Amino acid sequence: MDVLIVGAGMMGRAIAYDLGRFSHFDSITLGECDTETRDAAATFLKKSHVEVIPLNVEKTAEVQQQFQGVDVVVSAVPYRYNERLTQLAIDTRTHFIDLGGNNTIVAHQRRLHAQAVRNKVTVIPDSGLAPGLVSIITRDVVDHLDTVDVVNLRVGGLPRHPQPPLMYQIVFSPYGLINEYVEDALVLDNGKILQRKSLTELESLHFPEPFGTMEAFLTSGGCSTLPYTYQKTIRYLDYKTVRYPGHCEKMKALLDLGLAETTPLTVKDCSVSPRDVFASLLCKYVPTTGEDVVLLKVLSQGTKARKPCVREYLLIDYCDMERGMTAMMRTTGYPVAITAQMIEEGSIQECGVFCPEEIINPAVFFKELQKRDITLTISERMG
């Protein structure tokens, strides 16, 4: 089998690197239109068996031609492309995986399920960290508990050495970050799927030192389809982003000033989008490099063998300085690569459009994470 990764940014490179190490694809190709990004990816992957080629995701005929020459496509481009790429993959009978991150687009992809079944294609959106890994963890909760009362998903990508004013580091697209903060979050509450404002319901939670007390608040996209998949199974489920204390209040003040608005403003006879300006300012004044860390905690409560049970998942992953791999690249890119590898090996064979919790075996997936030195600690307390 042959695989194509579309997009040679940080996540695309991580996916290609991991597939080069652990998969058995006959060929691995990484496509990118930007010359500078493509050259940087080629340098990053110079010791791997990955071919880096020019590919413009805006040019449908060019993309379709590349899809026809491979068996699996992985999208590592912004989520706005994923619906069109999914349709192209189904048309060319090519399995398709993406990083997801936008509930509306995933809903549109799921409407293509019947077409994917007819063309014997597997499509798996939302296959990164959150959604993605947290979706598979939630499946594991449901598999191990007889009844599930609560699932609290808490995830954050952060700098090891935070700097004011935001105590944050740009670890993925600033537009993706802004989207998480402005779109409504989904919460499952006693069978009802509710929309809640992001940057609300602030709480404190504890991680092992050196992190200690952190904050978490509602954001959009992280739980994706989980409230729908488990509407009749889990009583309460929510997703919150983890940050250093004080971040939420400062970010909310900036957004309350309208810096995330997309309607252009006229400033000295020039039309400017506040969101474009804000994204540019974030990249200019918030660190984009340096050591990062991913913190993940999932707390679930329910019953097992008719007794109360608490099941907790903890992951703390650091950047790989030797390989130039950030923690966010590892915890987002590697899960996507594992999913592609599972299709290639035949452990995923169902055709249609599925989110990770519907189609991925958690035990198999967790073993693959361990091979990559991503340690997910699972503890359980009865009584």
Would you kindly provide a written description of the structure presented here, covering whatever features stand out?
The protein is 36% helix and 29% strand. It has 383 residues and is of the alpha/beta class. β2, α2 (35-44) and β3 (50-54) form a beta-alpha-beta unit. The strands form 3 sheets. Strands 7, 8, 9, 10, 11, 12, 15, 16 and 18 form a 9-stranded mixed β-sheet that branches. The chain has a 7-stranded parallel β-sheet with strand order 3-2-1-4-5-6-17, sandwiched between helices. Strands 13-14 form a two-stranded antiparallel sheet. It folds into 2 domains: 2-128 and 331-366, NAD(P)-binding Rossmann-like Domain (Rossmann fold); 133-325 and 373-382, Dihydrodipicolinate Reductase, domain 2, CATH 3.30.360.10. The model has no long low-confidence stretch (mean pLDDT 94). The chain has helices at 10-22, 35-44, 60-68, 82-91, 103-110, 113-118, 133-144, 174-182, 226-229, 247-256, 274-285, 327-345, 356-359, 362-371, and strands at residues 2-6, 27-32, 50-54, 72-75, 95-98, 122-124, 147-159, 185-189, 192-196, 203-207, 212-218, 234-243, 265-267, 270-272, 292-304, 307-318, 352-353, 376-382.
